[in-house]
Amino acid sequence: MSALVAAVPAVLAEGGQTSGAEEALFWVLAPVMVLAALGLLFARKAVHAALSLIVVMISLAFMYVAQGAVFLGVVQVVVYTGAIMMLFLFVLMLVGVGSSDSLVETIRGQRWAGWIAALGLVAVLAGVLGTALYPESVGLEEANARSNPEGVAEVIFADHVFAMEVVGALLVTAALGALVLTHRRRLGPKRGQRELADLRVEGGHHLAPLPAPGVYARHNAMDVPALDPYGNPLESSVPRVLRVRGQEADAAEYAARIDRVLAGRAAKPDENPPPAADPAGQAVNAPDIADAVAGVDLEGETK
Amino acid sequence: MSLDNYLVLAAILFSIGAATVLLRRNAIIVFMGVELMLNATNLLLVTFSRLHGQLDGQVLAFFVMVVAAAEVVVGLAIIVSIYRTRRSASVDDVNLLKS
Amino acid sequence: MNTLTSWATSAPFADIGPAAAEPVSAGIYAVAPLLVGLPLGSAALLLLLGRRSDRWGHWLGVLASAAAFVVGLLTFLAMLDRDASNRVLDVRVGDWIDAGAFHLSAGMRLDPLSMTFVLLVTFVGTLIHVYSVAYMDHDRDRRRFFAYLNLFVAAMLVLVLADSYLLMFVGWEGVGLASYLLIGFWNHRTPYAVAAKKAFVANRIGDIGLIVALGLMFATFGGVDFTTVLGANMSGVSEATLTGIGLMLLLAACGKSAQFPLQSWLGDAMAGPTPVSALIHAATMVTAGVYLIVRSAPVFDAAPTAQLVVVVVGAITLLFGAIVGCAKDDIKKALAASTMSQIGYMVLAAGLGPVGYAFAIFHLVTHGFFKAGMFLGAGSVMHGMDDQVDMRRFGGLARYMKITYVTFGLGWLAILGVPPFSGFWSKDKIIEAAFIPTDGHTWRAWLFGSVALLGAGITAFYMSRLFFMTFEGERRWSTRTDGSQQHPHEAPALMTWPMIILAIGSAGLGLVLGLGNRFVDWLAPVTGEHEHGEPVLAPGVLVALTLVLVVVGAVLAWRRYAISTVPVIPPVGTALTRAARVDLYQDAVNDALLVEPGQHLTRSLVYVDKTVVDGATVGVGQTTVGLGQLLRKTQTGYVRSYAATMLLGLVVLVATVLVIQS
After folding, report:
1. Which residues of C touch A (CB under 8 A)?
2. B3-86 adopts what CATH topology?
3. How far off is chain B from A49, nearest CA to CA, in Å?
4. pTM exceeds cut of 0.80
5. ipTM, 2 dp
6. Residue C308, exposed/middle/buried by CB under 10 A (0-12, 13-18, 19+)?
7. What tens digit of pLDDT does each residue of C80-100 get?
């Protein structure tokens, strides 16, 4: 592994000049990176933005390695993509996967100001890059004579050891700060199972378990809502996450089919009263409905 | 290929990050924009390190990463606690400065 | 006493002109500061102790006043021992102001003039203190009253004993303050509080005159102490300046002594308790103006124009008060008008120059006795008549209040100028002096003499009217507004004895002091000798004329108010009567000439202040606020806005740098 890592820069970068391989790598990666970065700007969902940022970061890691910063490339993968971006995703989970960001601007003039500032920044930075004078590229052969990590280690632990210590302290402090910030003090008594049950009764919520999805539907899938005895879809039977994502199937069409089946049965001579007339009759009707549903199911499968 | 290309790329990435900060309202995405800006500067540092043949630029990029890690930890903790109290991750909802 | 002695050492010696003063430090003169200190200390004690001294406070006040009188008497006796030419003394109390070139020491000028005042103030003051003990018996604030009375006595003594105009000004303001406090003593009644305010304001107008005079003196003579000012060589000073000083001093005198045109406050000042009217607004404070003019004699002597104005003012006031006095039905206001008129006599005499100074002071002393006596008598009548002041509801009181009747009668005879009562000795001399031509102007002698003569007749009429309406004729006091019976009764001994003593003074003082020109000689070290001018009419003729006029006036009053029925409801009367009832429209004139223009001025100034001045300042503030409101719009509270601003700023900054560098 270490031999491989040590070999890569030798291939990609010779002296201060870029090799053809490096040039190819750059031109492959750079458009991808810019596109992914633009995804950060335009993605509706935070998860997508995070994923495109990961693309940018991994590409950057490649570029670091290509430029002779092997150690930094590895650290980029480990710290940024491995730790920081995972933390982002974690927080996204906490906040809610469904939290999508509408792109409609609420602050008046902010969009204009933002675009002008960003484009102005591009222009200004281009101006700076254009006017700056660069020395002849030296290259890292000398600095990386032993190996890049060793050279970096020398600089860190010899020249910048104090900064290193301070940064370490900073990290510890930040970890502590995160603990303190997210710590939630318990203000009331602890709620056990008993207390939660009592609360539910007092609050008049649904006491029994929620209905399972798709029980009477043609599909036994999670995204199809269950139907009550009268054929109305039950919203609460579909898992919340699917509802938030808007991935639940439309129950109306299934309900309509059931109505058709029921109407067909009603056309036949039938001494049974309509189901809604007598609550006691529900139990009696249930098998019929089950049959009907089963029929629909079959019908659907044949399609 | 000149090393300038890296610099231009860094400038573009930096600008996109800045635009993200200005235009997005989800605090987490805004934060990602900040990270993108930091990464762009890191690329710049690495390129200059190569240009000058010195490793100090890489070391500085390394420190930037560490500090960014610390920053992310604290920043995300703040976002989480704000979300807990306000049920929202939009930076526009946090405007107590005005009132 | 050691302290006092050490204060009194190293007095500056001055030997200039007729007002030369000899510095003294030993013997009785060392305790002279006690004259002021005793009543002042008592006043402070009474005010500081508050209600704790309620039970005995009034006796402390009487004691302080009496002690001051004893000190004054001892000083007076010591002065009598001295040679007549040696009676102007300076008692130095200490350094007062030492500011660079301006040096002023606080001291006391003891001379026959100030000693006269000291004796008058402390003696009459003590009697009135005693009287007040009974008169204010039912007032829950009697102690405070005595504190103010003591304060007044102290301030008045500072006024007359001061050895510089500035120190005199302190006393001048002090008596003004005491007068204000005492007029408004029953300030829970709004008209009384307003009257106090009116007196205060009118006095302040006069004070402006005194302050300007002080400034002029300092600019002209380089000092404000009597030795410097009065001892200066007046021929070296332009007459215009002296006239200015004299007129300003006259303005001050007019304010304090209720002379025309600042006379309007005295009538309203009767709102104060009657002893106050007797002491302050009859006997002592209102005569301070006369004192001021006589004290400043060298200035006036060198400014004939100012003197003429003084005489004119005195003459106008004399007639003014007399006319008003004829129409007033309120016994105290009638007496106040009479006081005004009598002070007019004094001012007139003071304006006549060396001829009249002594007579002005002489009349001041006798007037102090008989007018105070009459005021106390009026207080006694009010005491017996349940605080009734309307003379039309008196009548026939002679049988019920014998002592008051007799004492008041003696005062009445004195003010009429009936020989040998004291008024005769002083007032007739003033009339005689008015008939003496000054600088050869006989028309002046005729004019002012006639005014004084006429005034004597009118005085006889209105004082007799007052006397007869109160004590003679049929009773008109059986009905009051609420219909209950009046039970007039004689006042207690504490009130009658001061009246008796003052009545004795009214009767005999003129004779004692006037025979053989004793008083004039006594005052000579201050007023200076004067050549005897001859009046345009023979003195004997003048005396006879005066007596005839007095008798005519009294008989007229007798016929109208003692024999015939006096209507309880005042008749409409002639235009003059109606005018006199409202003080010859003095308040209306003041309102029209001063108050309303003043109010308009202040209103327009307020308007200017609000629109222009406030407009400018508020405008600056509002502009700032408006700018702030504009800037505030940029402060949305949104983090992203701030970030956008930062980034835009950065772009602009870097762009500027780029442009500059390229």
Report:
1. 636, 638, 640-641, 644, 647-648, 650-651, 654-655, 658, 661-662
2. Helix Hairpins (1.10.287)
3. 7
4. no
5. 0.92
6. middle
7. 888 777 788 888 888 888 877
